[in-house]
Structure formats: structure tokens, C-alpha cells
Amino acid sequence: MDALDLARWQFGVTTVYHFLFVPLTIGLGVFVAGLQTAWYRTGKEHYLTLTKFFGKLFLINFAMGVVTGIVQEFQFGMNWSEYSIFVGDVFGAPLALEALLAFFLESTFLGLWIFGWDKLPKKLHLATIWAAVIGSNLSAYFILAANAWMKHPVGYEVVDGKARMTDLWAVLTNSTALAQVPHVVAGSFVVAGGFVLAVAGYRILRERNATGLIPRKKDFADVTAPMRREVDMWRAALRGALVMTAIAGAIVALTGDMSGQLLHTQQPMKLAAAEGLRHDTAGAPFSPVPGVEVPGLLSLLAAHDPNATIQGIDDIQQRLVTQFGPGDYVPNLPIVYLSFRVMIVFGMATVGLAFLGLFLTRGRGRRARPVPTWFARLCVLALPLPIAAIISGWLLSEIGRQPWTVQGELLTAASVSPGVSLTEVAISLGLFTLVYGVLTVAEAILLIRHVKAGPDEPVPAVVPGETERRVPTLMY
Amino acid sequence: MTTFWFILIAFLWTGYFVLEGFDFGVGALMPVLARGEAERRQVLRTIGPVWDGNEVWLITAIGAMFAAFPAWYAGFLSQFYLAAVMVVLALIVRGVGLEWRGKVRAKETPLVDVAIVTGSVLPAFLWGAIFGNVLFASAFATVMGGLLSLGLALVHGAVFVALKTKGPVRARARETAWVAGVVLVPVAAFALWRLDAVPAYAAMATYAAGVVLVWAGKEAWAFACTAVTIVLTTAATFLALHPEPLPGLMIESAASGPYTLTVLTWIGLVALPGVIAYQAWTYWVFRRRLTAPEVLLESRSA
User: Fold this and answer.
1) Containing H/E element for A463?
2) Is residue B198, in this structure, part of any structural domain at all?
3) What tens digit of pLDDT does each residue of A52-98 get?
4) Does residue A214 carry a pLDDT above 60?
5) Is residue B291 a contact partner of residue B167, using CB atoms and an 8 Å limit?
6) d(Cα A385, Cα A93) in Å, to the nearest integer?
């Protein structure tokens, strides 16, 4: 165990934690903005209630995404100074642009949104949440463009042992980035969709339990009016999440296919590792679960040709030794193999759930089908699936890139800060793991509490003596 | 081009210290300025809508250093490794504390307040300490730098609260500002004298003017003075850092290529005025002075 190993563990731990929160921020932000837009356009009170309810959950999670992101901005310099010096000219640009064009937008307008309910006209206030979520999504674009450059470096030349950018546009329109950005962003919407499904499913179950009316009939004819309104509200949230998850799921599948093909040409080792394919094989098979092989499927997926030759791990290793000299160029095979399958199976299960839900709850107005109780339960149970899928996708993508930090240019072992000692990294790794762990549990507790408590009740108006402001409709 | 980018990075750090400076001061002084829960909310509400946007100045400064001077960025953060870890951890607990304070149970707020206070005091001290160490490489300079930046943040923050509130909190903030301001005179005088540059001497004058003006009840002018003091102090620091921002590292050799610097210049010149405009607009939207009952009744998300 040396400083390099610990630095890698630290990067992995802090990034995976960061990536627990950020996809939810990205997707849930847009969902909340959509709810507020629905309220703005229809004036229906329940959309406002939902906006505030999911807005609060969004903000609890947003805080964690922001603060864990600060670490990322510092960490390249702290632990990976050799990497930073080699890539800064290219890699630093999207990071600087991310802060300048995305983070300012996101944080400033979110502040306006949170505190602007009474101070801004309705339309302008709605615009602030949209500006903030556009910021979040833009930040995803910039950071993923930077990340894509590590896997498929373009628009640069190496001068005096440092990468020098020659074409910013090439970096920002890297084919790897153009496949990866929609894949990850749509994946984030699936995560947020799964989150809303679980929350709405839970609230539906709870409303039904509270009134002792878990309906077994086809419609709500026997349900009291106030309760029906409650259930209608959560049904609307659930339906919204189903639509979002289904559409995003289709985009995830499509862009996943694009990414697979790019792997075939750009990162053959990652592709071979994901399948555990040892040797160059024409008509390579794919095994959805170990032991079952579908002949030619991997070739079909990666090259859109069932007879195409897919490179194998051992043969690529030999070629890389010839090209770059002796060394081990194979990533951690069990993790890459397993995370590939977890990503696909759990991700598709979530999207399948969404399509099933859309079918079950079809119909509008009086013919709207109620949410079956068993389906609401299933939504709650399915909460971990999209989260596990997106984290696995990230592990596949980054562990599969090893042993490189910049594919073909810089090895991870040569990237670490030479002056930072084992003790220092041990201290920081310990502190980050501890603080992140505690805060993640705290976030989970806060989220569960607020979901259980449900939306705030509208309070009777009390006009304080010394304020001339209009009376708030909803109390925080 | 290299010099221009050095100035731009100095500008971003200046923006950060001026804006987050009062955020830190407000967070650190919250228990001193407020009596009871309503007033604590009132004090924190002064920075509620803006602190996160202010913190992005740091992220942008660090990102710009990465892009424009990779070796400076890498050397700066890896040489001050444990200090950077502490800064980041402090910003983490502080940020989470500020966002979560209104969402936890009443019996948990003291814990959140501890996070906010430590998370404000630590980075305010550490930034000055880090830059003091870079410039003078002695333990004494490190401590003095830390005390200077913490002290300026406290005075600046107290003046900000005085400017943004009404009622008992305003009176307490005004008093705290000038008392702290007077107590800190030796530290500020010594540290600025050691920086030995025109902006540093000018900072002494604006600092003194700020303390007198807040004592005289001219809060807006006092705030302008403390803000200018931080601008001048940061300017003096970066003047001293040029052309050797880290011992043994020259700015020219740390810089990215002309292509990168040129494209980033164009994007920066277009985007930065926009950022400044909408952040300024935020301060305009929330320009009213706050009272404690008003803050309690406010309708907001979370």
C-alpha cells in the first residue's frame, strides 16, 4: 500500500459519493422546474404543493452535490499534481468553463429561486429555477467533456512532455463526449425518475393506509373526495416520473449503444474487459449472465455486424507492450465485468418498470386508471436499482480506463503528486470517508423524514404588525 | 498574455475574498450577533440567497488556475495538502449546515450551528495562513496571515449584518464591528506593513476609515471601506506573488500555451460581465433590510 493506492481510493470514494448526489440534482431539478411550470400554466394548487415538496427534497440533496464537488475541483491538484501539470492546458479549460458558465448560473439563480417566492413576479421566479437547472446540466456537459478527453484525447499535441490544446472545439465535440454526455445526463433523469417513483409510491400507500382504504376495485368511486384529491396529486407526480423515466431510458439505451461502438474503436481493452473476452474473436459472443452465451451478440452490439472481430484482452495486452513497453495494461477484470452487467440489468429493470407503470395507469380524466397498490410498493422497492446502475456505469467507465489516466498518453502511476506522503493521503482519505459517510446518512435521514411528513399544510394567514408585505400562502 | 491571466486570477481571488469574506464573518459571528432562534435566522438570512454564488468565485479561481497555470495550481494544492483538506472539509460542513439548518429538528440546530461557525472560521483563517506562508515561509507569518484574513472577514461580516438588518441585531453588529475593528488594529497594521506595497498602505487607510464609519453609523460607507480594504490587501498579496507565485516556480514557466489562454480570454471576457451583472441583480432583489419576524414569516423553498 503506497500513496498512489490511497490516492486512487480517495478519488474513487469521493467521486462515487459525489456521483450519488449529482445525478439526482440534475434530474430532480428539471422535474421540479417542470412541476412549477405546470403550476404556472394551469394554476392548479396541487402542482404548487408538489413543487414545494419535491423542491425541498431537491435542496436537501443539492447541498451534498455542491459541497462534494468542491473536493473534486481541488483534488486533481492535491493528489494528482503530475497529471494536472501534464493535462492542465487541455483539461483545465472545460473545468474553468464549467465554473464560469455553469456553476455561477446554477448557484446564483438557485439562491434567487429559494428566497424569491415573494420578491419576484411569478414568471421571473419560474425562470430562475430553469436557469439554475440549465446550469446543472451544462456543468454535466463540461465535466463529462473533460472526462471524455481522458479516454479519447483529441485536439492537442504533446510539447515538452505536456499536453497543449490546439483545438478547443475538438475537445468540446469529442465523439466520446457526445455519446457520454447524453448517456450520463439521461441516466441521471432515470435516477431522479426512480427517486420520484419511490417517493410518490410511498405517499400513495400512506394516503391509502391512513384512510383504511387500500382500494381493490378498478376505480376510486368509493373513495372520499379529499382523499381522492390527495391520491390524484401523487398519481400526477408518479405519472410525471414514469414519463420522464421512460423517455430518458430510451435515450440511455440509444446512447449506450453509441458508447459501445466507440469503445470498439477507441477503447478496445475496456470493451474486452467488460465481456471478459480473452482473444481476438470474430463473431464475439455476449453473456448476459456468466455461463449463458449468445453467439455474435457482442460483435453485433459493438460493431453492428454479428461477424465483426472484437479484440481480446490478451492480444491487446501484447500489442500495448509492443507499443508502450513492458507493463500491465489490463484493468481490474472482475469489477469491470460485473459493473457492466449491473449497469445494464438494473438500468433496464428501472426503465421496464416505467413502461409497465405507464401501461397500468393509462387513461385520462374519469377513465384514468388508479395506481395499483402492488405497483406503488414495487416503486418503493425499486429505489436502489437506478442508483446501483448509474454507479456501476461509472465504475465500468473509469476502472475500465485503467491503467491510464489519459489513454495512451499518461499512466495513473505517473500522475500522482510526488510530494504528498502516504501519511497525508491516509489522513485525508480517513477524514473524507468519515465526513462523507456521516453526511450521507444524515441526508438519507432528512430525506426520509420529509417524505414521511409529506407536504406542508397551508397555514392560516397571520399578518405581522410591522410588515407591509403580502401574506405568504405557504409557510416554509 | 501570461500577466493578463495572472491579473485575472488575482481578480477572481479578490472577488472571492470580498464576497465570501462577509459570508465567513456572518457565519462566524452568528452566535455573537443573535440572541435566540429568530435572530439567528435573521443573521443567516442576510447571506442565505447569495453565499453559494459567492463560493463559486473560489471554484472559478481554482479552475482558472488549473487551466491557465497548471503547475501553479498543482504545486499550490499539493504543497499545502493538509491545509487544503481542512479548507475543503470546512466548506463542506458549512455549506451543508447552511442548506440544512431550516430542515432539521429544533434540537439538532445547535449541532448545525457548530458546523456553520467552525466551517466559517477555519477557511477564513486558513486562506490568510496559506498565502502568508507562501510569501514569507515562516510560522509567524502563517499565523499573522491567518489572523489578518480572519479578522478582516469578521469586521467585514459584522458591517454587512449591520447594513442588512434592522432592530437589535443591527445595533449589536455595529458595536461588534467597531470593537473587533479596533482590537484588530495591531494585527492589520503589522501584516499590511509587512506586505510593504502601495495597496497595502492604502488598505490601512481604508481599514481605519471603515472602523470609524461604522462607529459613526454610516454602514453603507463602512461596508464599502471594508470591501476596498480586502481588495487592496488581496492586490498587495498578488503583487508580492508576481512573478514567483510559489517558491521556485516562475509564472511564465507555469503557464498554459498561448492558444488556450487566448480562447479562454475571449470566453471569459464575454461571460464574466454577465456573471457580475446577474449576481449584482441578486443583491438588488434582496436589498431590503431584514427584521427577525419578517424572516420567520417568509415564504420560500426549504
Assistant:
1) none
2) yes
3) 999 999 999 999 999 999 999 999 999 999 999 999 999 999 999 99
4) no
5) yes
6) 35
Q: Give the list of residues 6+ apart from residue A84 with CB closer than 8 angstroms, or none.
A: A76, A77, A91, A92, B66, B70, B73, B74
Per the structure, the complete domain to which residue B59 belongs is given by 2-260
Q: What is the CATH number of the domain that holds B182?
A: 1.20.1630
Concatenated DSSP letters of A334-402: HHHHHHHHHHHHHHHHHHHHHHHHHHHT---GGGPPPPPHHHHHHHHHTTHHHHHHHHHHHHHHHHTTT
From A256, A99, A287, select the one nearest B64 (Cα to Cα): A99
In a domain, B286, yes or no: no
- Nearest alpha-carbon partner for A66 in A120, A13, A102: A102
C-alpha dihedral (A102, A108, A110, A112), degrees to nearest 10: -150
3-state secondary structure of B213: helix
Give domain status of residue B189, yes or no.
yes
Total structural domains within chain B: 1
DSSP B44-75: HHTTTTTHHHHHHHHHHHHHHHHHH-HHHHHH
Stretch (H or E) spanning A227: helix A225-266
Interface with chain A: mutation pick from B52, B94, B108, highest number of A CBs within 10 Å: B52
Asked if B252 has any chain A CB less than 8 Å from its own CB, the reply is: no
* pLDDT higher than 80, residue B123: yes
**Would you call B73 and A467 a contact, using CB atoms and an 8 Å cutoff?**
no
Nearest to B74 among A84, A100, A165 (CB): A84
How close does chain A come to B80, measured CA to CA in Å?
8
Contact A55 B301 (CB under 8 A): yes
Res A56: pLDDT: 93
Residue keyed to cell 414514469: A242
Pick A372 or B177 by higher pLDDT: B177
H-type alpha helices, A152-174: 168-172
- In this structure, the number of other CB atoms found within 10 A of the CB of residue A206 comes to 16
Are B59 and A73 in contact by the 8 Å Cβ rule? The answer is yes
Q: Is the pTM of this model over 0.95?
A: no
DSSP A421: -
Residue B195: inside a domain: yes
Cα separation, B142 vs A408, in Å, equals 42
Look up the ipTM and state it: 0.90
Taking the C-alpha atoms of A211, A53, A65 and A90 in order, what is their torsion angle to the nearest 10 degrees? Answer: 130
* Residue showing cell 435572530: B39
Measure the CA–CA gap between B98 and B22, rounded to whole angstroms. 15
Task: Give A276: exposed, middle or buried? Use CB within 10 Å, 0-12, 13-18, 19+.
Answer: middle
Examine the pLDDT at B246 and tell me if it is beyond 90.
Answer: no
Q: Which residue is closest to A74 within chain B, CA to CA?
A: B77
DSSP B101: G
